[in-house]
Here is the input.
Amino acid sequence: MSALQTVKFYQTGTFTVGNRLLAPEDRSVQANMQRTNSLNSGHRACQGCGEALGARYAIDAAMNATNRQLIAANATGCLEVFSTPYPETSWQIPWIHSLFGNTAAVATGIAAAIKVKKQKGQGQDVRVVAQGGDGGTTDIGFGCLSGMFERNDDVLYICYDNGGYMNTGVQRSSATPSAARTATTMPLGPEPGNPFGQGKFVPAIAMAHEIPYVATATVADLRDLENKVTKAMGMRGARYIHILVPCPLGWGTASQDTIRMARLAKETGVFPVFEAEYGELTSALAIRRPLPVEDYLKPQKRFAHLFGKNPAVETIARIQAQADKNIRRYGLLAKETV
Amino acid sequence: MDKPFAITLNPGSSLANHTGSWRTARPVYLDRLPPCNNQCPAGEDIQGWLFHAESGSYEAAWRHLTRDNPFAAIMGRVCYHTCESACNRGKIDEAVGINSVERFLGDEAIKRGWKFAAPTQESGKKVLIVGAGPSGMSAAYHLRKLGHAVTVMDAGPYMGGMMRFGIPKYRLPREVLDAEMQRIVDMGVTVKLNSKVDSILDTMKAGGFDAAFLAVGAHIGKRAMIPSGDAAKIVDAISVLRSMEGEDKPLLGRRVVVYGGGNTAIDVARTVKRMGAEPIIVYRRTRDKAPAHDFEIEEALQEGVMVKWLSTIKQAGDKEITIEKMALDDKGFPQPTGEFETLEADSVVLALGQDVDLGLLNGVPGLEVTKDGVVKVGTDLMTGHPGIFAGGDMVPADRNVTVAVGHGKKAARNIDAWLRGETYAAPPKHEVARFEKLNPWYYADAPKTVRPMLDIIRRQSTFEEVQGGLDESTALFEARRCLSCGNCFECDNCYGVCPDNAVIKLGPGKRFQFNYDYCKGCGMCVAECPCGAIKMEAEDI
Amino acid sequence: MLKQCEGSHAVAEAVALCRPEVICAYPISPQTHIVEGIGEMVKSGELKDCEFINVESEFAAMSVAIGSSATGARTYTATASQGLLYMVEAVYNASGLGLPIVMTVANRAIGAPINIWNDHSDSLSQRDCGWIQLFAETNQEALDLHIQAFKLAEELSLPVMVCMDGFILTHAYERVDMPTQEQVDAFLPPYEPRQVLDVNDPVSIGAMVGPEAFMEVRYLAHAKQMQALDLIPQLAQEFKAVFGRDSGGLIRSYRAEDAETIVIAMGSVLGTIKDTVDEMREAGHKIGVLGITSFRPFPLVEVAAALKNCKRFVVLEKSLAVGIGGIVATNVRMAVTGMGLKGFTVVAGLGGRAITMKSLTGLFEKAGRDELEPVTFLDLDWNVVNKQLEREKQVRRSGPAAEAMLRDVGAVAARNY
Ligand SMILES: Cc1ncc(C[n+]2csc(CCOP(=O)(O)OP(=O)(O)O)c2C)c(N)n1
Ligand code: SF4
Ligand SMILES: [Mg+2]
Here is the structure.
């Protein structure tokens, strides 16, 4: 509970984006009238795209934390495609897109160049962010990511997890949740949707690299997200933030429900929000209003086959068990500690 | 920089791509009516003044509040705050303690000596107000603000009407009442006390008044036919309460039976308890059917007032009374059971309601009186006689201070319009901000602050105020529990959650504006607005 | 300064003299000694202001190079064979983005069957990737070409591959003339990137380009390589002015003035060919040599001019375009279109097969008599090949061809690398 305690009761505390009752320095980056809008208007993301939102949240926060001394490398995927189709780009910072699976390595190269320039007295202390979708991170880019972690390169890698290869038309990735329908895990056969017992949770793998900082966040907890980005930018070495970004198109949710879905993912325990330093869990964002996983699953068309006339009670129970495990493992129901 | 063709692009250049063309529905900002405001009989903009209080701008809050109701300190004590029952926060944890914040503001105003400004321009019109109670003094305030010359005449020796003669001082200390009355006098209102108006038309003519507002209240205690011996002491509640204000305190003996189940009955019982007597309330129905507010019944019980529910007085003697037990029928009406009981009683106080003294209206053409003995008025509070308006307890309405104060405001607006030969048209009411329109996630968890209560021994024996006020920090906390239903409070959510940066933040106090060049119409701002101040409208394509 | 050293070491030193700022590499034979050498220099502090990054793959190596080059750092990497193929996606990307990375390819065969010895299959598989490809004939030239490569890459904002034969050059101890730092500094100015990730002048690099502009982007890449055709000889001139020797350029002829037969080749085999030609000249054969240094861009005009007066040409190449024959030969044939020349393709030295003067003499004599097949596989063991073909004709599942043939030639087992 990093963000939320420090501010005592101010009507909405730190739940809302802004709060006129807070001192300016305690307000969110997003509340600022002069905020940088790192991802400018005019981008071509779908209506209500969580990835567009998450990216602006994260990069604005990183710009703020580094006084705009920031360069980004970006993997192929929705974020890249909707932000930089010739002849226009939405990015306001120096930004490079190379390939789908090499973003962490590109960022390593940028960081290395910056380090040398600085050594030579030819450059400022510029910081590096790498960013990509879950496919570009947990699958094809995983080798480069692990290499970057293992070498402890001075890069903050941000994964925008929307649970699938959305840019190519919603196929399964190793971050697709169990039972979810995608174009390559159709709700057919004896185990409809994405099989149980597959997939990986890269934040845990990142922790196993014992890098200085690993965190998860969602677009529903802006202050938490900003704090984590800010904290990460205050550290050196390899850092990883995994942000859950609902995708209306891939999830089959209403465009206005993007933040609500992220909130439900966190409140049901489906997506644990926590921080770890050097491989050790240091904090978890407590669930505020515990809810059953159904509340999260039901509004999503990708889980529609679990409901209807004959609800897949057992499957839902298995998903609930996964959430319960998260709650236990990350202490999500523990009382907040100050 | 020598940029390679097409591969390398200028920053932020996507502004050239107007994604607003994708939209099928557009968000628009609106103000919805907060349920508290909707509920307030005095028409206060509760959410509006809480908004100022939230930032600690208490004077601004008080000034905002007193746009509608000049008696913050009084309201903060005697208003039955139905606003709190309507408050949406009640659906999250507990209603906002609106009343306690109002009292805090009222007390601050007295403490700091905040005054109302006299009008900058005189209208040249003269208005007579009869009755210096809540309705009359409220009308005086609003009419004076509008620049009219106001004269208030009252038969009694003090200002305040029922607020003084009907409400015990342990609920409303007299310094508070005096301060809020005097503040209106200080605006240049003429108040003539001990001046009973016997004929309204004569008085208007004599004083050259252009209009009049009648608010004489209902001061005549209703009597019930109780067979009684000569020696039985039977008095009415209003007289008892009124005599508390004078030198001669009423002599009621040790055992005092109070007959009735309304707030006045409770007030009398608690008053006599404080004078050292043993009050016992006799009421013909059950506690949950009693018209008195339950919290007042509870406080009375705590203080040692006894109650005989489901009982009627059959007979009164000089040292005892006979009561009959009642039983509720299936419609909930009390029916006699034929079971009797005797109670020791030195006196019986009747608290069965009050009637209006309509003497001053004799011979006024066009004026009509209802069968309940109150004056008929239109929605503009004008009686059947042009230029004569009436309000408060003397017209058909709920009888409480807040309603009366509301009448005063309403009458003032209508009188003002009438004086200009116009009719007052109230601005249309916005749709109510129902709980379903809110996104309560965003409000910090915060249970209501409880006001301190005077300890029980002192409550039983003194007339000190029972309920304390909030101090600054608790009042601030309480104000900040307000959800600001239906009204933007600049939480920046819309500005923050838009994936397309299509919300323009205009700066403190200026709210926001949509940039429809880029708004794709996803509706996230609507879904994530905590207070329901944005709605989607179909785009005609 | 003259010194006797291993080819890899010579290259490592030359690269260090170019003041690289970021070096990233992943080990693969026969490239290892180069990056080991530079790594040591960085670690010891001999090479200052340089980051040496041990990456986890060649794909990462090229990706790191992309990142650092785009951030304005002079960037170098080296690879070979499987490693080059492993990084292919990034190789195309580096040239597509116009990043002046210099990479040594220590040429080696491509598996399967896995083979660590020299041929040109790796580099030539990347002939269309958009990089400039320069082939070194000697260790001295390898050394010199790296110095030229940085200047060429940075002037054009295009990546350059310096190709040198694995083992034959990389592991050979030869005498080289190692330039001084002053000489290199005089020739090679500090890197001034054409486009750069700069917080003071932000740009987005790597946009998605649709059909409306993609052709133009590709044409511009081609046009840049055409510019290189002028720049490469010019740089060779400048190089000569500073260092006093001929190195680089597009092509180089040897004893070709009156030659009726011209042998065309790339890389170290030119040495053996020249020795053979010397002998044959003495025996009266009118034979000469054309070495191609710049394979990309391919100097069509210069090659045509060099072959103008001959009767026939023999392209001897260490690569095979399976299913058609030669790769270099195809390019040469394009250069001489319409000139009515007889051309022979000779595929030689694949996977490190020795190319001997004896075989070459026989080959060239046969060519001189116009008795060569259009495509010849030099020193192919027909016995083994025919046996295997025969086996396969009879038994559908005749087992792994490589092992069967090893048995036929009498080798016990293949060594693992
Ligand atoms: C090497 C390679 N393989 C496949 C692709 C095709 N591809 C482009 S984007 C993409 C999906 C991206 O998924 P993710 O990284 O999760 O990002 P999202 O679009 O979901 O944000 C794929 C499969 C590619 N561009 N490159
Ligand atoms: S497909 Fe999903 S991630 Fe991609 S732009 Fe649309 S909403 Fe965003
Ligand atoms: Mg994805």
